[in-house]
């Protein structure tokens, strides 16, 4: 390759397979069934293509020949099934109305599309007026795009794409909509591009416009490259084919179409292997290796070992911490004595510190108290309230030594014990009938009687 | 891990695009409506009124501690709506919007982020309302409010990673969206949004503790800790914090890996 002919797009052994459903089976069935009933449709079969800068390639073919598939592959919207596709440079695609958002105005679409192409807001501001002027939309630029005619959409799409300064421009049947004056203008712009040594792909059914713009033409025929060469030769052959086809009777046309489509359905990787082995030197020992390499489509996305180890580690940590969170030990305790943590039955027990209490609204009572002691804070209110209740029940207490304590909000057994100079065990001893693992505010428990200075005195 | 970095790089590179798309998403969603985007504020507000009547007035015992009911419920609803709308709408963002954006080379991973940005103003407005009401109730700005930044980052990380994962799944399995919708309605009551299940003594203590492991619970309670100056994040049981960030880590690694691995194949499944 010489320097002035830089490779822009290189496709080798490119195929694209679509899996079509046999009948209207729902996605649900497809999801659960292992061997779902689909058949393969080879939209592209063994396409080889080298495109250099400054070239304009016309892509022609009947409907369903795979033109759009090829263009989508080049713009990296879809990925090839097999083969290698190399695209050097930014690609910008124009097709009728595509990429235009209906719900917003033309001006907003310009900004959106430009942003998505990686331009900054400042650059867009600078270019905005130029783009609007080129699009010839005038006052309609601030209308919603859904109200645009197809010609206006196509003009807008072309204007935006042209000002993206792409390396590769793809025009997918977009220019057939615009009127001849706009077509003239856009063809001028395209020649400008070619002088800047940019690559242009034109997909069109219009032989005249292809003839005007392109130097090479790719003729796709039911997924295969029928011919690739200079425009005069290919277009001549294409015209001949069209004439021949049009002269067939309707029945013959149908038979021909069916035959071609069958080829597309019956194609398989085996055919591709044969085709490849035709093109390379099979006498060489490394031939089969090369073929396998071409056909081998691995996806390059794998989790690294480090990531897998990290994932595993974090999962184990989460499980461990979840167990700790649901046990009655704190993290420090459990991590300090992991063996005891699992063997001594601490799992799935409430922590002594875990107590979340409900809001106490004994409606009118507390409200009236609030009024009388508005300066007091909430906790003292509770003490005064509970002291009333404790005094009423103190007579029923059998233990002469013990005193009562009404559990306050946020109290734990440990707190109570510390406050009253006793131990948790001692409290448990004098409360044989109460389950102290669940204490709630307002509950009255007995305390060992040595403490005389509880806050309960009233 | 590599994919997580790729994902974040794509988000940062396309930040201006994300903000711009999120702006016109509102326009698209409320096209032809006179009130327009105000509706996205009215919906959480009506739900707030319903739950305030239920749990603030009729059954007031279900709100723990001494915290006033109105801001307590309001902040819960604000976070929940942010989460639910982002996850449910974001999960379909790739599957539904693919055709709009497919005509150019453009990282699909930013579509869930667009949904997040779209819902952010509602969260901000409702969070601001909560703070004003809390101040009326006597909770004035204090150092604890710094924690709001920490919990907001946690919430956004949770939402982004989870939505990215869901959006990738929905491309291949559309029914997952319906599952998400119903699950989110159900999960609302287990996430401490409108009432605090962990205060119900009917439920065994171990289960009540386990509920706090729910990452949504962590965030919702965190916001309340900050606003009502209850506690610092390091005063919490550390295991909850570690589990929360551990889950976020796993979600990010798995989601970004799956997304990047399968995004070449999206076009075969989206039509």
Polypeptide structure, described:
Chain B: One of its GO terms (biological process) is lipopolysaccharide transport. Chain B: It is found in: Cell membrane. Chain B: Keywords: Cell membrane, Membrane, Transmembrane, Transmembrane helix, Transport. Chain B: Belongs to the ABC-2 integral membrane protein family. The complex is a heterodimer of chains A (458) and B (271). Helices cover 44% and strands 17% of the residues of chain A. By secondary structure, chain A is α/β, with parallel strands linked by helices. In chain A, 29% of the residues are buried. With 271 residues, chain B is mainly α. Chain B has one domain. In chain B, 72% of the residues lie in helices and 0% in strands. Chain B has 12 helices and no strands. The mean pLDDT of chain B is 87. Chains A and B meet through α1, β5, α3 and α12 of A and α1, α2, α9 and α11 of B.
Short description:
The complex is a heterodimer of chains A (458) and B (271). Chain A has 458 residues and is of the alpha/beta class.
Spell out the blueprint of helices and strands:
The complex is a heterodimer of chains A (458) and B (271).
Chain A: E1 7-21, H1 27-32, E2 38-52, E3 56-60, H2 67-74, E4 82-87, E5 91-95, H3 106-116, H4 121-135, H5 150-162, E6 168-172, H6 180-195, E7 199-203, H7 207-213, E8 216-221, E9 224-230, H8 231-247, H9 250-266, H10 269-279, H11 287-295, H12 305-325, H13 331-336, H14 338-343, H15 363-372, H16 378-393, E10 403-406, H17 413-419, H18 424-430, E11 444-447
Parallel strand pairs in A: 3-7, 3-8, 5-6, 6-7
Antiparallel strand pairs in A: 1-2, 1-4, 8-9, 10-11
Helix pairs in contact in A: 3-4, 4-5, 10-11
Chain B: H1 2-13, H2 15-29, H3 38-58, H4 69-91, H5 93-101, H6 110-136, H7 147-172, H8 176-187, H9 205-211, H10 215-227, H11 238-262, H12 266-269
Helix pairs in contact in B: 1-11, 2-6, 3-4, 4-6, 4-7, 4-8, 4-10, 7-10, 7-11
